[in-house]
Amino acid sequence: MKSPKFLKAVAIATLAAGLSLSHAAANAQALRLGTATEGGVWFVLGNGLAQAVGEALDTRVMPVTTAGSMENGRRLSAGGDLDLGLMLSTSLKNGIEDGTIDTDKIRVIGAGHGNFLQVVVRGDSGISSWSEAFQPGRIVGVGEPGSAAFEVTTGAIEAQGQSLDRIQQARLGHQAQADALKNRDIEVMVVTPGIPTGAVVSVMSTIDAKLLSGTDAELDKLLEAQPFMARGLIPANIYNNQPENAATVMLPSLMMATAQISDDEAYKATKAIYESTAKLTAVHSNGSQWTKDNALASRKYLEALGVQYHSGAIRYFQEIGIW
User: Fold this and answer.
1) Which of 16, 70, 231, 238 has a CA-to-CA distance to 89 between 20 and 30 Å?
2) Three-class secondary structure of residue 255 per DSSP
């Protein structure tokens, strides 16, 4: 006959094994959400999005550090790794064209905060419009080659009827442009991140500078040339000495999902995202843009690419009357 101590030890071991299996099963059911590199908006906000979706689905959603948009799209398309991920429509287009993203394998959940085209000049420059800013001979910051900023900025210049060969391109990143504008090494600073942008804060807080608003005609030209963009508005007083709203364009951040996510999961995730704006704003200021008003930004362009919205997301959008 086994001793009581032996039986107790067996019972403890059995319980521990059961708990271990339960823990493993829970982890196996966890969803993975691709964000970006540490320190950026997507990394920070991605953690908040993961928490909101996890609470809605009553499961663990793990934020995963990645290289960002293109990697997230490729991993979602490949399957078995990420379940959700943040992307830009430019990466979707490029991935579809180079064959690394299969439109049958991914779905759109919705759009949120934008990456805004921001054109900044010195107050004494005499420049008052985008068209004037991009005139031949100007020294213009265009971003680093290969970056999304470079693609958007050079496209914006060409959309206004100007040749890139006729301006002096300063191929600098955001902060380098800020320093160059302060030192009068460039005449026009053009950056494309979320708002407020640290580099623009630096300029507007230290020198007499102004943020230019695009006219309706200028915006229409740009949107015709770059249909993956959407109209955007930078609210007054986002920056020092910016008393009025600035009309511009933005490249929306997208929440994407693998096509394997169930209709119910996608519905609950979508509802959680767009009904958690206050919580997301507490995580990062750009969380305030994850609203129902922005949810379908770039819809026509995405559908033209052949990328479908998830049926669960559509169900939620139909319920709130925006689909």
Assistant:
1) 238
2) strand
Q: Please give the pLDDT value at position 171.
A: 94
CATH of the domain at 196: 3.40.190.10
Token pair recorded at residue 71: 């990697």
Q: 194 with 114: CB under 8 angstroms?
A: yes
Tell whether 212 and 263 lie within a shared domain: no
Q: Tell me which residue range forms the domain holding 156.
A: 118-228
Tell me whether residue 129 is exposed, middle or buried, using C-beta atoms within 10 angstroms of its C-beta: 0 to 12, 13 to 18, 19 or more. Answer: middle
pLDDT digits (tens, 9 = 90+) for 46-102: 999 999 999 999 999 999 998 888 899 999 999 989 999 999 898 898 899 999 999
Phi-psi region of 132 (alpha: psi -120 to 50; beta: other; left: phi over 0): alpha
* pLDDT for the residue 11: 44
Query: Which residues does the chain have with pLDDT short of 70?
Result: 1-28, 39, 146-148
Last residue of a domain, one of 212, 228, 244: 228
**Predicted TM-score (pTM) of this structure:** 0.71
Give Cα separations from 177 to 169, 186, 194, 230, 254 (angstroms). 11, 8, 16, 24, 27
In a domain, 2, yes or no: no
> 221 in helix, strand or coil?
helix
Q: How many separate domains does the chain show? A: 2
